[in-house]
Design brief:
Layout: E1 13-17, H1 19-22, H2 26-46, H3 58-65, E2 76-82, H4 86-98, E3 106-108, H5 118-121, E4 125-128, H6 131-139, E5 143-147, E6 160-164, H7 174-182, H8 184-193, H9 205-215, E7 225-231, H10 238-248, E8 254-257, H11 264-270, E9 274-277, H12 280-287, E10 292-294
Parallel strand pairs: 1-2, 1-4, 2-3, 4-5, 6-7, 6-9, 7-8, 9-10
Antiparallel strand pairs: 5-10
Helix pairs in contact: 2-4, 7-8, 11-12
């Protein structure tokens, strides 16, 4: 008999999520801040049978996992990447089971940064409440965002709806640097001049491509995923964006060119389960309407790794 093991194909999309992004652990975190690791561990063990409430990323995770069906069983895997220890993480896993989430893999690192294991898991995206872990993940080439507390996170649609900013998120910050250094008029002039030159990819390009790969399994009107580009760009800087996505062969379902207008109300109208942006002011506008992840990349985030 052969000893060769048959390995199942990897899912099309692998998302790593921290326990504080998946569940509401603000009370537990307050105990950690006031009583330290020992007090936190004692509290979590004493409350092992108390189910945790959904956190900001819960709706997105639940919809991602629902993409796995008998017809398409290998679409998505979600991995827990947590700073908890195995002991304190038991409450998290019990809550995962209680909520019916088919999450099997986890890394518990007892206060150390779990981003070290993201490439080993094959993660395309990492969501965390720890900005330093997010910056480290981005530095290794993995799309990552800091989940903002108090973000609105009530799902209103059966589809998974994900919205992205453009520059420094889907695209590189090449054009944003020109805007910062030379102003709007020069930015528009150069973007018009380079309209047929594709923009370089940003940190979320591979994640968007993985979503597009899943969308390709369905007829357009039947896809369980809907994406939107929500950008502060306006005409004439729109054309380069459209041509870039076309050159990548990546589909965006909706594109909103807002020319600097606040994004929050538009994201609510889109019904985003989550929105990713590199600028704090846009995140602040969005978080009152939809779940929001800050992407600490590009020229707007000088402390980014």
């Amino acid at each position: 008999m052969s000893n060769v093991q048959i390995t199942k194909p990897s899912p099309r999309l692998i998302v790593a999520v921290s326990s504080r992004a998946l569940f509401d652990l603000e009370e537990s975190n307050s105990i950690f801040e006031t009583e330290g690791e020992a007090g936190y561990a004692r509290y979590q063990i004493e409350h092992e049978d108390v189910q945790l409430h959904p956190g900001v990323a819960f709706s997105m995770v639940k919809k991602l996992l629902a993409l796995n069906t008998p017809e398409y069983p290998q679409q998505v895997e979600v991995v827990l990447a947590s700073r908890n220890s195995a002991d304190t993480g038991l409450r998290v896993f019990r809550s995962i089971e209680a909520h019916g989430l088919p999450i099997q893999r986890a890394a518990f690192t007892r206060g150390r940064a779990p981003w070290r294991y993201l490439k080993d898991f094959g993660a395309h995206l990492f969501l965390s409440a720890h900005p330093e872990d997010v910056r480290e993940a981005l530095a290794t080439g993995i799309a990552a965002a800091t989940i903002l507390p108090d973000s609105a996170a009530t799902p209103r649609h059966p589809e998974l709806r994900i919205a992205f900013d453009g520059d420094a998120v889907i695209f590189s910050d090449e054009a944003e640097r020109i805007y910062q250094e030379k102003g709007l008029a020069e930015f528009n002039r150069i973007e018009t001049e380079r309209k047929e030159d594709p923009l370089p990819g940003g940190p979320f390009k591979p994640f968007l491509a993985a979503l597009h790969d899943i969308q390709g399994q369905f007829e357009t009107d039947e896809s369980p995923i809907r994406t939107a580009l929500v950008t502060a760009r306006g005409a004439p800087a729109h054309e380069r964006v459209i041509r870039t996505l076309r050159s990548w062969g990546v589909r965006i379902d909706e594109a909103l060119f807002l020319a600097g207008k606040d994004k929050g109300a538009f994201l609510e109208s889109f019904g985003a389960d989550i929105f990713f942006d590199d600028q704090w002011r846009h995140c602040d506008s969005a978080r009152g309407y939809v779940a929001t992840g800050h992407v600490p990349s590009g020229v707007r985030n000088p402390c980014a790794i």
